[in-house]
Amino acid sequence: MKHAERAQNETSDEEIIALFWARDEQAIVLIQQKYGAYLLQVARHYLENREDCEECQSSTYLALWNAIPPTRPENLLAFAIRILRRVAINQWRSSQRKSVVPKEMTVCIEELQTDLKGEESTEEQFIAGEIARAISVFLRKQPSKDRYMFIARYYLAEPVEELANNLGCSNATVYRKLEQIRTKLKSELEQEGLL
Amino acid sequence: MKQEILTDAISELDEDLIVDYFDTRIKLEHWKSWRKKVLHCAAVAAVLVVAVVGSMSLLRDTKNRGYLAPAHLTTKPVQRTGKPLTEEELAAFLPAAKEDAIYLLLNHSDDPTVAGLQAKDLHFSNGFHHVQAVESGNYLSQDHLQYLVLHGRKVLGRLLIFRSDDSGELVSQIEGAPCDDRLTELLRKYDGSELAMIYFGPFVEAALTPDGVLHYLNGDTDLPAQSDDYYELFFTGDNCITGID
What we know:
The structure holds 2 protein chains of 2 kinds.
Chain A: H1 2-8, H2 13-21, H3 26-46, H4 50-67, H5 76-100, H6 103-116, H7 122-141, H8 144-155, H9 160-167, H10 171-191
Helix pairs in contact in A: 1-3, 2-3, 3-4, 3-5, 4-5, 9-10
Chain B: H1 3-11, H2 15-62, H3 87-93, E1 103-107, H4 112-121, E2 130-135, E3 138-139, H5 142-150, H6 154-158, E4 160-163, H7 170-173, H8 181-189, E5 196-200, E6 203-208, E7 213-216, E8 223-224, E9 232-235, E10 241-244
Antiparallel strand pairs in B: 1-2, 2-3, 4-5, 5-6, 6-7, 7-8, 9-10
């Protein structure tokens, strides 16, 4: 984040977005300069392999290039992080499958998947969307610190040690607090009939 | 709930929550930086306080001309720490025993260190090797006496009553002490061991004779020893003279 703060003094997000809209590849260079290090750091939360992380970062830039335009994000970093998370999760799921399936078989399945891969079922998509909405509502009702902890831990997959260090408290405190948040969230989702 | 659905749901959280996260994170960075500075300042302040207090303690000790006073002497003592007088000694001092009085008993001593210190601080230049002080019926310990000297207890600086064991030669041996005709006359009349000299600083101010008369050497009128306008003096035996400020 320090990198991001420092970089913010150099080029504004609006300028970078304008370059994306102008289809100027300099936008990729600037976003790499400004947020590259932080995006890579977040990618490491999801993926262990450095090459996978770099690949995830590159895929994120490509996704940004494709998404802007037509999208004009209000917050470039938050937008980039959302894309990075999706890309990283796809890579993570893919690597999970690879780890239980023999290498050659993986290649075969991936080959098949490119043609036979179906979309997520409508019902699953609906449920995920409803849960996302309920969690968003729940988080808005929480204190700023709890919101921060939840997003840091469950959205950005920050290690507990890093979180405790940022908050200036012990790991045990973070664990305890997260458990309290989860319990409250469970209760909220049960009331909504989503659990 | 399936893990995949939950993962996707989290990914679909509203973007403003992510923006809020980054805002909070920036605030936390500032807070951490501020806390670091505060802790740093607090540490520096603590070191300074320790240094100042430590140096003041050292200064207080070294002010005592190299004599490190025991801890219990850094504040004014309220009780004597020496051995109590015997019944007979106490009886001898009783006439003069009152609050805040200092009685000085002069005796011989073979301890040159003690004699040197006390001779200097009590304005004895020579002739006496040891001073023993008594207050309110108890001998003062050497530590207590040293405390009184080092802290400038005025009675010790101004009034000293002592007995000469070096008859006739005492006055001339005291550096700076005037040896006027009056004293010479007294010394001629009395044995030196019977005279008590009253000093003001290094100067002999008066002499007390065995008949209880205080002879002022500066020309003032002689006073009976027991008059209380300035001194109250008592003989306390063959080799002890007491005085009260």
